[in-house]
Amino acid sequence: MTPADATIPLPPIAHARFGIGEIVRHRMFDFRGVIFDVDPIFANSEEWYDSIPEDIRPKKDQPFYHLLAENMESSYIAYVSQQNLIPDDSDEPVDHPAIHGLFTDYADGRYTLRPQHRH
């Protein structure tokens, strides 16, 4: 077998259910946020992953979303698996201090990413 014939095992193709600029809510915890980046599969540290209680630990072979998140007490960055997100139907904007650095307009329940942040 030549190197060109060797196959590299790849994870199954994961399809992102949500897109950049969408507002989502966590399925189990009381926070919501706007998506600013998506990883097709888990791309954080093993230490971070292992810190999640085993009985609620998500599978790694699904999209993970970076959120500008908020709850009643604070604003922060969250990293959440697709299985733990649902659409937010509140029609309310997210009040996070980094919103205006990444996004321009808010309309129809969605933010528009600034052109310089697109790739």
Structural features:
two-stranded antiparallel ribbon; 119 residues; five-stranded antiparallel sheet; mainly beta
Cα radius of gyration in angstroms:
16 Å
Segments where pLDDT lies below 50 for 5+ residues?
none
Spatial strand sequence of the major β-sheet: 4-3-2-1-5
Strand % is 25-35%
Euclidean distance between termini CA atoms:
37 Å
**SS content category:** mainly beta
Order of helices and strands: EEHEEEHEE
Q: Oligomerization state of this entry?
A: single chain
Global outline: globular
User: What is the number of helical segments per DSSP (H or I, 4+ residues)?
Assistant: 2
* Count of DSSP strands: 7
The share of residues in helices is under 10%
User: Quick check: average pLDDT?
Assistant: 90
Major sheet attributes: 5 strands, antiparallel
Domain Hemimethylated DNA-binding: 15-114
Protein name: Heat shock protein HspQ
Keywords: Stress response
What topology does this entry show?
Layout: E1 23-26, E2 32-39, H1 46-50, E3 64-70, E4 75-81, E5 85-87, H2 99-102, E6 103-107, E7 110-113
Verbal overview:
By secondary structure, this protein is mainly beta. It contains 2 helices and 7 strands. It has helices at 46-50, 99-102; strands at 23-26, 32-39, 64-70, 75-81, 85-87, 103-107, 110-113. The strands form 2 sheets. The protein has a 5-stranded antiparallel beta sheet with strand order 4-3-2-1-5, with no helix packed on it. The protein has a two-stranded antiparallel ribbon with strand order 6-7. The longest helix is centred in the middle third of the chain and has 5 residues, at 46-50. The radius of gyration is 16 Å and the shape is globular. The mean pLDDT is 90. Keywords: Stress response. This is Heat shock protein HspQ. Residues 15-114 form the Hemimethylated DNA-binding domain. It comes from Sphingomonas hylomeconis.
